[in-house]
Specification:
Elements lengths: L1 H7 L2 E3 L17 H5 L19 E3 L11 E2 L8 H42 L16 H14 L1 H44 L4
Antiparallel strand pairs: 1-2, 2-3
Length: about 200
C-alpha cells in the first residue's frame, strides 16, 4: 500500500536538465516551523521499479517549492554517465538548499515588515474580530523592492552559478551522447563483421 501511495505522488519525466527552477511565493510554512527543519533535501523513500527507464519527479517541497527528482540509473552505466547523473543530483540539491534558505528569509522579513508598518500606524497584528491585518499593495511594494535590492548580489551570484552548472551539464550530456553513438556504431560494425561468412 505504501508503494502504491508513493507511486501516486510521483510522476516520471523524460530527462531534461534545462528547465529553470524558480521558487514561487506560495505554499510556505510558518517561519517557526521552517527554522526547526534541516535545510538539506530529504529524498523520498520510494524507488522506481527496476523496469523504469525514466527519471521520477515528486510533489513540490514545502520549503523550497521545488520537486525532488529520483534519477534513473541506466543498466551498465558508464563512468561518464555516472558523472553526469551525480552532477545533476548535486545541482538539484544545491538549488533546493538555496531556495529553502531564500524562501525562509523572505517569509521572516515580510512578517517583520508588516508588523513594523502596523505598529507605525498604531495598529495591532489582529483586528477586533481576531483577523490578521495586512497592508495594501502599494505598501507591500516597498518591501518587495527593498528585498530584491538587498538580495541583488545574492541573486546575481546564484544566476552565475546556475548557468555555470547547466553549461557543464550540457557539455557532459554531449560527451555521453557522442560516447553512446560511437559505442552503437562500433557494436553494429563488429556484429556485421562477425556475421560475414569467410570466403
Amino acid at each position: 500500500m505504501a508503494a502504491k501511495a508513493a507511486v501516486r505522488g510521483l510522476a516520471w519525466r523524460v530527462f531534461s536538465p534545462f528547465t529553470p527552477r524558480a521558487a514561487s511565493n506560495s505554499r510556505h510554512r510558518s517561519s517557526s516551523q521552517a527554522t526547526q527543519q534541516d535545510n538539506t533535501l530529504k529524498r523520498p523513500n520510494f524507488r522506481p521499479p527496476a523496469s523504469s527507464t525514466h527519471d521520477w519527479i515528486g510533489p513540490p517541497n514545502l520549503l523550497s517549492n521545488l520537486r525532488p527528482i529520483i534519477y534513473h540509473v541506466p543498466k551498465n552505466e558508464s563512468e561518464l554517465e555516472k558523472q553526469l547523473r551525480h552532477l545533476r543530483q548535486e545541482t538539484e540539491d544545491w538549488n533546493h538548499n538555496f531556495w529553502t534558505k531564500q524562501n525562509i528569509n523572505f517569509k521572516k522579513e515580510k512578517h517583520a515588515f508588516i508588523i513594523s508598518q502596523l505598529k507605525a500606524k498604531g495598529l495591532s497584528v489582529r483586528d477586533e474580530q481576531g483577523r490578521q491585518q495586512s497592508l495594501n499593495s502599494e505598501e507591500m511594494a516597498v518591501f518587495y523592492k527593498g528585498f530584491l535590492d538587498n538580495n541583488r548580489t545574492l541573486h546575481a551570484n546564484y544566476n552565475k552559478e546556475w548557468y555555470r552548472r547547466n553549461f557543464t551539464i550540457t557539455l557532459l550530456m554531449a560527451r555521453v551522447a557522442l560516447h553512446n553513438m560511437w559505442r552503437t556504431v562500433t557494436h553494429k560494425h563488429n556484429s556485421k563483421k562477425n556475421s560475414t561468412p569467410p570466403t
